[in-house]
Design a protein that fits this description.
With 252 residues, this protein is of the alpha/beta class. It is built from nine helices and eight strands. The protein has one domain: NAD(P)-binding Rossmann-like Domain (Rossmann fold, 3-Layer(aba) Sandwich), CATH 3.40.50.720. The protein has an eight-stranded mixed sheet with strand order 3-2-1-4-5-6-7-8, sandwiched between helices. Helix 4 packs across helix 9. It starts with 11 loop residues before the first helix and ends in an 11-residue tail after the last strand. Bound molecules: zinc ion.
């Protein structure tokens, strides 16, 4: 399936389902129709991507393409709210699809129990309207960034550690890309076992969903050339300017 080919007509049932958000000033039925016609790739269905997927589905996005390698462990359950205690040992993407389809049967869900390789990113990015970058390592994020920039597909980039997080959008041709902002991997990143309070990843996952909805529908003002950082230890939020690197290997 190629992007933006779903029906944009809302049924009466859907109008009732989404009426509380369609009354937000400036959102309306037209943007709701637009959201229904759009698709998002969720790269990582953990604490960040799982929450983002949940709120994109609840808001009425047309399709989610979920990519996450691996099986559920007990220590995932403090933050991965699409999962269930009796699902430990099973593939996370399967449970995520089931949960989202039960939440909102109007959302189409495609799943891949794989890591983001160059091949997979190049295959999937052209089929979606936006990518959400929520894998716990730079290698997979860089593959996603490269494919997004090459194809002109927007990407929402976010990560967290303990009580802190950051968020910025990559709009190819308009903003810095992931490689401009982080030319080198942060050696402090641990793929497994980094500390996380579930509610912190929940906040950041929701912020990712909000930025994706804004970019997809043209509503509000998404972050452009700015990075939001926060430390919820003392509730400090900041917006920092990001600069495009004209010599960037990916978007320069
Ligand atoms: Zn760049």
């Amino acid at each position: 399936m190629t992007r933006s080919c779903r029906s944009m007509n809302l049924s009466e049932h859907e109008k009732e389902r989404y009426k509380r958000q369609m009354t937000i000033n400036g959102f309306g039925q037209e943007r709701q129709n637009t959201l229904k016609s759009k698709s998002a790739m969720i790269a990582g269905i953990g604490g960040l991507g799982g929450n983002a997927a949940l709120y994109l589905a609840a808001a009425g996005i047309g399709k989610l393409v979920i990519v996450h390698y691996g099986k559920l462990t007990l220590s995932n359950l403090n933050r991965q709210i699409l999962m269930k205690d009796n699902w430990v040992g099973n593939a996370r993407v399967t449970q995520a699809k089931k949960f989202i389809e039960e939440l909102n049967p109007h959302v189409e869900v495609e799943i891949y129990d794989e890591r983001i390789s160059e091949e997979l990113a190049v295959k999937l990015i052209p089929t979606v309207d936006i990518a959400l970058s929520a894998r716990p390592n730079f290698h997979e994020r860089r593959q996603l960034n490269k494919a997004s920039v090459a194809h002109g597909t927007p990407m929402v980039e976010a990560a967290m550690n303990a009580m802190e997080g950051y968020l910025f959008n990559v709009i190819p041709g308009k903003t810095p890309c992931l490689n401009c902002v982080f030319p080198e991997d942060d050696p402090g990143w641990q793929e497994l076992g980094f500390p996380v309070l579930g509610a912190v990843s929940g906040v950041l996952g929701c912020l990712m969903a909000i930025e994706a909805i804004k970019i997809l529908t043209g509503f509000g003002r998404p972050l452009l050339g700015q990075m939001l950082t926060f430390n919820l230890f003392d509730m400090e939020f900041k917006k920092l300017r990001t600069m495009r690197d004209p010599m960037c290997d990916v978007c320069g």
